[in-house]
Amino acid sequence: MTPVLIVGGGPVGLTLAIDLAHRGIKSIVIEERSEPMAHPKATLLGARSMELFRRWGMDRSVYDAAIPADNPYYIIFTTRLAGQELYRVQSPSIREMMTRDPVAAARFAEMRWSPYGKTQIGQQALEPVLLAKVAELGAFIDLRQGWRCERFTQDADGVTGHVVHIETDAKEDISALYLANCEGGVGPIRRQLGIRRNGRGKMRSNVSLFFRSKDFLEVHGRGLANLYFVFTPDCFGVFTAIDGEELWNFQYYFLDPARQAEPIDPEAILFRAMGKPFDFELLNITHWSHHQSVARKWRDDRVFLLGDSAHLFAPTGGVGMNTGIGDACDLAWKLEAVLKGWGGPRLLDSYERERKPIAVRNSIVSATNSDKTDMVMDETPEGIDLPGEAAALDRAELGRKIRWLSRQFSSAGVHLGYRYVASDIIVADGTLEPADDPSRLTPSTWPGSRAPHAWLDDGRSTLDLVGDIFVLLVLANETTELPSLIDAFAQAGVPVRVERIADPEIAALYEQPFVLVRPDGHVGWRGAGEPDDPAAIVRTLTGW
Predict the structure, then answer these.
(1) For a tag site, which of 134, 303, 390, 479 has the least CB within 10 Å?
(2) How many Cβ atoms are within 10 Å of 301's Cβ, its own excluded?
């Protein structure tokens, strides 16, 4: 019997397997595809996902597979791509983040909040990076590609996945203690469970045209950008750089629901969006929809929902895949704790209680971003790219709206600022919750928050001190290491270690002289000295 059966070998399922493996927990991963995703699909790793990948030494591999490191992160708004430029937004480049460039740091606030900014990488490029890490961890991960889990059964002792090999129709039953469903938005596991979704549901239909063009950059002449938005009434949408050289994607927006069934002419669509003909090779067409949907339940006894099986997003903000990666890293340490015997019965219940509110928060932010974009596009007048004074005035007004709209791309608060409010495995201290601003981060050790990043004198981040077991951070010049609290962990058989940080600026950032960080990097408790009941602290944090 394997400890964990993971159904779905996309970014979320592979992340869960990798995190479990680093915690010494074996898993079997069932994935229908025999090759990585061909379509880019998700294209952005947020700062928190990169921080999580940093734990396993994967950040440089991701950077190597992402768009060129020296290119600033640009978002350009145009009438047509080769037409009139309306506005552009800039974020730091990968190189500036890697080198901690002081000029960039003075300009971009997000460089103070994390070692990472926005990292653009298509899912078709990210999955090989994750698969390479899985291969390194082969002793702990049994990856079975080309298999489908058609249904499951479970009882008090475990869960059995009934799987079939797609090519040969060979059938097998895989017994596990737990099943993690990472199969995506459509699949048999959630349907078998009968779990419905709440939220707005399907919002707007789109079609993605994935294509190769070596002439793309030269034809429009605007230089390399991550996203190019097209605001013209006959072809609303956005071009996305996939490799920054010859692979591109165009999301064509159906703002009018009556047009969703119209025949698709990729050449006509791409030529209208560009504003002139250009040479391209169409690689893939994908029809999909914006969503704002969150599953009503995330757990059924020994079965857990993660990623798209638990929540569906609009892509505006690049939050969907990143929320799924966060799901995986929340569940991994809790499964480890229960499987190793030191996690209590409430620990696995806390997965839904902590992660579901984050999915609701993030999906609403993404849906609101989508609504704002749709509104501005819908108000864009005909002839926006024509010559003459009237069109110039229209473009000036559209540029004003876009400057307001573009605030959604300052999203550090969304990716880094989520916290677990009212969690029953967090020890609250009664202080006021910091502001939850989607555009900015308020670094804090308020219990439930991600432990803040700061650079240490030796070049490491404070993030490098946490993320495996419980860690008590002792700040500044405190002489004690809270022996009663450490002894309470030892008595309960829960792994913990002490890390000292002597920097007074970091001590001020961390707000209290003692900060206890959970294995997922979130603050579980903080205080000015020994707690009155250390054993109660440990029981709360470990779900007993």
Answers:
(1) 479
(2) 13
